[in-house]
Amino acid sequence: MRKKLIEFRNVSFRYGDEQPWVLKNVTFEIYESEWIAIIGHNGSGKSTIAKLLNGLLFPQEGEILINGKQVNQESIWDIRKEVGMVFQNPDNQFVGTTVRDDVAFGMENRGIPRYEMIKRIDETLTAVGMQDYRMTEPHRLSGGQKQRVAIASVLAISPQVLILDEATAMLDPKGRTEIMHTVSNVQEENDLSLITITHDLQEVVQAERVIVMNDGEIWDEATPREIFSKQEELRKIGLDVPFIAILASELKQAGISITDEPLN
Ligand code: ADP
């Protein structure tokens, strides 16, 4: 059986005593090497979940466990070795003057020996297809290339969980496809648990399980296929269904089957 890696137990969160609750009694589990997509309308609480997972925020109620260890002020440095995050805007994520320095930065902060750093820079840039750019200044890269470097920087820390919070939102369709291809390769090779927070339901198709958020609560948790079969309900909570799912469903209604497994 797969090992439980992340547990949210009855987590509620608000951004201040006078503020409304933005997460209400949220409970879910994520297993080792599982790919989870979190979807939901704007403001439904997705990014807040990501920040709680990384110890950027702490819940007022309930608890969050990573590898059985509670996320709190004392544990955040250990937790951040386990949980890597890539955000939406690649330009906000660079600290180094070259791609190589950038990947090195997170490792320096964690006291990883130099010989090990050199090895990991090489391995992770190769994994994301950016080895040829190691001496390039980050601002010279395209959006997609920047996100690939951001992923390499996170992988260099050898996390068990990789969270992509709208990491493809600023990319064009080609950049998006390339990133998702890279991500699915590195996930498999490194046996990572992957959490993709996204507006792009096309990306969700690749996940094993989907958590749908609505107004700070879990609205549903199921396979992509099950989720996409609820098109009308998804529209009601402000989500659009990918063209392919609509097409598959319309063809099915017309009695035409394009494939037995149109969504997975
Ligand atoms: P999503 O990622 O699904 O768009 P968020 O987790 O970013 O949702 O936001 C959930 C709710 O929390 C929203 O109502 C948002 O306005 C509010 N919120 C987010 N960040 C802050 C903040 N720093 N201070 C106050 N409210 C916030």
Automatic annotation (TrEMBL):
Please state what the protein is called: Energy-coupling factor ABC transporter ATP-binding protein
Q: Does the keyword Glycosyltransferase apply?
A: no
User: ABC transporter domain: from which residue to which, for each copy?
Assistant: 6-240
Q: Name one Pfam family in it.
A: ABC_tran
Originating organism: Virgibacillus byunsanensis
Record-level Gene Ontology MF annotations: ATP binding
Give the membrane topology: Peripheral membrane protein
The record, for SUPFAM superfamilies, names:
P-loop containing nucleoside triphosphate hydrolases
Q: Where in the cell is it found?
A: Cell membrane
